[in-house]
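Q: Could you fold this chain for me?
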Amino acid sequence: MTAELLALWESGLSVDPAGRAVLLHAAARPAATAEELLDVVVGQRDADLFGLRAALFGAAMPVRVACRGCGEELEFEFDATAVSGMALPATETVAVTEGEWTVVMRMPTSGDLLGARGAGRALLSACALEISRGGRPATVDDLPAAVAAGAGQAVAEADPRADVELDVVCPECGESTGAELDIAGFLWAELDSWARATLLDVHLLASSYGWREPDVLALSPARRRYYLELCGHA
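A: Sure. Below is the predicted structure, expressed as structure tokens.
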């Protein structure tokens, strides 16, 4: 598994965050095809990534956020397994009506995010099933910014697994601070840190004993740490 995770990390170095999320999801669902992964709605994908995080690094996720009231750094743990128990979307589509505007959208998928590459209007266009103004067809480009933002917010609220936001109360000033937990970014940062530490172990043990990378990776973490202690690198 160590070699596979390092290969995943290496592949992720050359892609953007949307691409990394897909790579991580492939690790969470190794039997799925690329097409199947891209068709998974974002909420389910993120639930899978929380499960992967629990399997790789444990369920307790250390989170830090600065209090918006006094600036105090708040530290707490989030249980990665809690996401699997969150409610599923009540419907597959979301309808938003604001004034004379009506927007009907489906839940976004990993493929939609990959195609949009962070562009809100592009994602809206991919997921919009119907847009009308006063009962007459309209396009995404016609939408006022406030209506477009409202449609995006409604979709996010419809599936809490896709928008995990924590509310933290500061013990110093009592101010409540919201913290959005981006599991794809969080998990990638942890994988990146783990991979660099693992490759440093390989370098140190290869330099000390002349072993090859597969030899070092085949060692259990406990034995690897013991050998590092013996050669004074721990």
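A (continued): The first helix runs from residue 2 to 12.
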